[in-house]
Amino acid sequence: MAGRRMHTWSCAVAVSLLAASCSLLTKVPDLTSGSPEDDDAGGAADAADAADAAFCAPHTFTYDPKGRVLNSVHIGGSFNDFPKTIAAGGWPLTKTGATWTLTRNLPSGRNFYKLVLNESEWILDPSTPNELPDGKGNKNSFVDSTCSDR
Fold this sequence. Notes:
Blueprint lengths: L1 H21 L17 H15 E9 L9 E5 L13 E2 L1 E3 L2 E9 L1 E9 L3 E3 L7 E3 L5 E7 L5
Antiparallel strand pairs: 1-5, 2-3, 2-6, 4-5, 6-7, 6-9, 8-9
């Protein structure tokens, strides 16, 4: 009988320890519901959806290089952390004829940016007179946008 009690106690301890170690898991993916909220890809998709929701006012950027041959033009701004390259998150403009254009949603408020030519030359947007000092001895172009549905 004492042997059986010892065995019961050992199993109880083992179950308690196992339950304790399982309780350390903070988030268990639900693989049956099809809900993306618990998996990494879904979390990234949710973050992207939230970011898209924050970007609610469309704006068209246009650049005419006036005959200059360029390999790329992208936008670096306060809305995408002023990336130096397209690979780092710069918003690429598409060349149609001689003009480069891009229409993207911008967050509500004042958005600062520059055009980046060939991923190396940062310039003010010549299509707008809107520019302000950046506090570092340079200037940035800006566009004010509002969200009409909010």
